[in-house]
Amino acid sequence: MPSPHIEEALALARLGMGRTSPNPAVGALVVRDGEVVGRGTHTWAGLKHAEVLALEEAGERARDAELYVTLEPCSHHGRTGPCVEAVIAAGIRRVFTITRDPNPQVAGEGIRRLREAGIEVQLLPDYAREAEQINEGFLFAMRTGRPLVTLKSALTLDGKISAPDDNTGWITSERAREHVQKMRHTTDAILSGIGTVLSDNPLLNDRTGRERSRPLLRIVLDSTLRLPPDYRIVESARDGDLLLATTSAASVERRRALEARGVRVLVADGPGGRTDLHKVVEFLASEQYRSLMIEAGSKVNWAALEGGVVDKIFFYYAPKMLGGLHSLPVVGGSGRRRRSDALLFRDIRLHTITEDEFAVEGWVVK
Question: Kind and range of the H or E element at 144?
Fold first, then answer.
């Protein structure tokens, strides 16, 4: 049965997307006799959790009221006290929530404590998919111990990302590129290869202008530190938001010169003198980055897929074809030699971008 109150709580949670990492985005509503008397949206800068903000707005009207919250209230001490204690103290009589928090510090403990205090708790699984999408990276990280890795690309209908002679202009439309920026805004880190960076001289930044809980971490795979110090991505480095993943073969002098410009350097030696993507992901996990988006060229795309680093894809398709044998495909490398060995995907979703453009989203079968 549809619940307008939980739908409003989900809308409040969406307001926090990009503004809460490494915490989840949560929305909360306090309802008394059918009337909304308190609302809350969690943001990292605001510190207080959504439930506490909604309860504070409701004040005394929270007693014997209902609480609608998009994620199980926390039961542990972090930057703030446990939300369950605030809910119990406010005199809430019933809590509606969508999903249990997979954080090992919570994992059903919040619901258990509420019920022990005599508060009725009802789960609303019909809204689970929407709630999962809001906190996809956080929930994945809590369940696996590492960030969610999404391979994003813009390509022609025949799967090409680059022409052999001239790549001036864009493959996809302005609306598609705006959609990419929204994805970057809700992502903790973005990664590209040195070949793409040398070719395009990109900023790889979040251009939405919206508030973030922390800067988008820009990562470049650069095994020998070829990145020139006068490139835009280096000149724009601020607050440790640029990381070069390299190898021990890189010049110590070049490393020192880049670090003097505010660039962070991670030595991640892999097979064949290449940078090890798994070590990059492990580093991100240790720093509590919940999500990583790869925007790279054919070689890096294949290395990430073949190496088992990628969890899902998001491909934007433009109504164009390049053809030929020399235009680069979205995934290069050695590829698979037999159809039976093809990489498989599940839970495929199609997104309409414009009248003539679409995107394909899917999870890698591992």
Answer: helix 136-144
At which residue do the structure tokens 């390509």 appear? 155
Backbone angles phi, psi at 189, to 5 degrees: -145, 155
Q: What is the reported pTM?
A: 0.95
Regions of the chain where pLDDT drops below 50: none
**Which has the closest alpha carbon to 233: 268, 208, 196, 267?**
196
Mention every residue, 6+ apart, whose C-beta is less than 8 A from residue 330. 153, 155, 159, 160, 161, 298, 301, 315
pLDDT tens string 248-258? 999 999 999 99
- Report the C-alpha dihedral over residues 343, 345, 351, 357, rounded to 10 degrees: 20
Which percentage of the chain shows pLDDT scores above 70?
A: 99
Active site residues: 51
Angle between helices 50-58 and 83-90 (to 10 degrees): 20
Number of Cβ within a 10 Å radius of residue 118: 8
